[in-house]
Queue: 3 jobs
Job 1
Amino acid sequence: MSAIKSALQSDKYEVRIRAIERLSEKRIISEREIETLLVETIPLVSILNGQTFTLRLAEKYPTPAVKRVLLWCALHGNDDVRVHAAALIYFLNGIATSSFDWNYRPFYLRFGDNNLSNRKLAYDELCEKIQVDPRWAIDESA
């Protein structure tokens, strides 16, 4: 079990998330610890380094802090995570029927735009749709 716990510090995010999954299945890690690790890990993942596993775990633990970091990532995350973070936000807020509902794909793809101004327009639209102040995820004072 100590090997799994030490995996929480791995530089490989897929290893880190798999360890979180194992520890949560065995009820050795609290939901608060899971939330903390997700909030730290979601902005760092890429398609080649644990993104799928991380977002799948975020779907199981959609705390306000996890939703906030997903929303932040939709606007400011790396190229790999932005589109999928927006899609998961839609799902977690009951708009989409799955974590990547293809009916909304054109909207999600707007978060893949390299132009921050274009992404900001999509972000504002997303926040309006889920009825959240756009500053909530990007402004600490909100």
Job 2
Amino acid sequence: MENPGNKNLKNGIALISELESDDFKRLRNLFSIAENEFLSKELKFRDSSYVWPRSALHNWARIWEYPYAYLSIQQFIKNKKDLKVLDFGSGITFFPYELTKLNEIHSVYTVDNDTVCVNGNKKVPLAFPENLNFQKIMPIFTKDGSSIELEDSSIDLIYSISVVEHLDNYNQIINEIHRLLKPGGRFIFTLDIDKRGDFALSPTQFNDFMEIVCNLFVPVFSYKNLHPKDILSSVNSSNQSEKRSVVGRIKGILSDLAKGELRYGFRDYKLLINCFGGCYEKK
């Protein structure tokens, strides 16, 4: 299926040149303002038990991923109303709250396997009582993403920002996403592709992941030719990632040791990662 709208919307690897487009620049500015407002009251909904970086935008790939996801969502919701959206692996970030400002969206389910994130998202609307749109947020806990307490074919669109590929049961998760989506519903996702081979999907796992997706969904956007020097990576990005908290790093190291894995220092360091974005429609 060909992309009927924005020329920057495609299935494929994130490109440096795309960051220079007017749409991506405009959205980065918009998101920066939105995140600063969001973080101005973070002490009311986050505490030291939140292990992820406080700023979601200060990440080498998010400067591409959030605009990509937002533009893909805008393309889908045009001329629709009362849409139900699900953020898989939400954390506690500004992004689902920014989506609540879109009139076409009825509700956004923020799904996470961390009770700290679920409870934090319950507190955010209380921290911003003046913003009635934030009441659209519906936090949900899931143990491993393979079973989410929502009815079959109840969601119009599901997006996930660099989450699914880090979970061992991505086969079950993709099937669960398929179950939740209405016929013709959209699955928008971004993936970390680790060229070093021990952080995210290996080449074999990536092929397996995409085969599962393509068995259940059809691509909305076409693929785009690219030049190797135009590929965005964790090394050449102009926006270097904010590191996880000390608590988050320690938890990551303990998790690695429990799995018998050995990395080069903290999991945040010495990574060479590309980013893949995809938009697919339920068959």
Job 3
Amino acid sequence: MNLISKEDLGILLEYEYGIKATLIDKSAWGFTSTAYYVRDGANRQYIAKVAMVSEEKLAKSQKDILLSTLLHGVVNTPNYLRNSQGEYLTVGKELLLKVADYIEGTAPFDMNTKILEQMAITLKKIHCFPLADVNYELRGYESVLQGIDVKGSETKLLHGDLTPSNVIVADNVIKGVIDMEDSLTGPVEYDLAVSAVFGWFRMKNIPFTKALDSVKNAYDGKVSQSLLNTFAVEHTRRYLNHVKNSKENYKDESNWQDDFNFAQKAFETISQSVS
């Protein structure tokens, strides 16, 4: 999605951040946001994320920056830059911009169990961060998935969306963790199930139960198998419903149909695997 031209982004980067870009290249995009790879004349590298302004997106971006900054010494999160007003976010009438130092690597679109295990270890580091040190009112997992009995589980800081899209990998090693926008609080099984489900989506010829076991074993902590199974099914159900309700966002109906068929089959497979 083209929210801003490269020329206008270059002007904004120089005016607000003092970055004289010699290269701006689209890196990733979605329905409401786009990320750009940026390099300047001194070969310094940045990532610039542009999104459509809304109250929800502004709140999520503020949360992302706050938690990424807090966790920077725990896991390698983005180092966000301040603009000319000393703010981390540059907000206009229609767009908002945040800029960070570039983390070398790519998203692991071809997943394997080695990366999945590292994701679990990364989650454990995040879960160990004291909630009392988070100066932000985080919502609970119930705001996303209701009706799940988590009696006896501890409430932890959760990444909320540690999927392959939100880790940066080089040579099968995780180099960075991005996008804390969906962070919340709840049981660790919520986070582990997210990584297992969406990691498995990008794995070939591996049973889901093996992906789930890889996450649980690598986490090496107290994990309820039944709760992990329940969250895995519910995350997949939620993804299926999301695809169902997003048809209007697809330019090509055949692409939507492919995604819907994939999501439906994944839900059936995971539900049967953990029953």
